[in-house]
Amino acid sequence: VMASHGRRSVHAREDEQRRKERGEQQASTPQGPTILLPPPPVDYGVFMQGLVQAMQTQAQTQAALQAQLQAQVMASRGRRSVQAQEDEQRREERGEQQAPAP
After folding, report:
1. End-to-end CA distance of the chain
2. Whole-angstrom distance, CA of residue 13 vs CA of residue 11
3. Going by C-beta distance under 8 Å and a sequence separation of 6 or more, which residues neighbour residue 98?
4. Domain boundaries, the chain
5. Greatest extent of the chain over all pairs of C-alpha atoms, in Å
6. What is the 3-state secondary structure (H, E, C) of the chain?
7. pTM for this structure?
8. What does the pLDDT look like over 2-17, one tens digit per residue?
């Protein structure tokens, strides 16, 4: 009988503990209007460093893309001029006259 009584009191204590925890949780939920905390302070030096770094990276990327585009255009023109020279050579071999440029 004593052992079962002991077990009941353990359960009763656990239940009481759970009720207390629930009560604390309910009490910790804000009642009324929500108070907004001010934003954390901003280190403008760090912010400006990041901004400058981003702008430098963008400028480098833009310069690299511009150079790449220019190289592609030059390569394309080079291929065209090589093709034109080969065409002219073929015409000469066949004895054709090149049409005058308009």
Report:
1. 119
2. 5
3. 88, 91
4. 64-95
5. 125
6. CHHHHHHHHHHHHHHHHHHHHHHHHHHHCCCCCCCCCCCCCCCHHHHHHHHHHHHHHHHHHHHHHHHHHHHHHHHHHHHHHHHHHHHHHHHHHHCCCCCCCC
7. 0.41
8. 555 555 566 666 777 7
DSSP state of 29: S
Give Cα 17 to chain centroid, integer Å: 47
Distances, alpha carbon 35 to alpha carbons 64, 67, 96, in Å: 50, 54, 90
Question: Which two three-digit tokens encode residue 34?
Answer: 């929500």
Amino acid in position 15: D
- Round to whole Å and give the CA distance between 92 and 3: 117
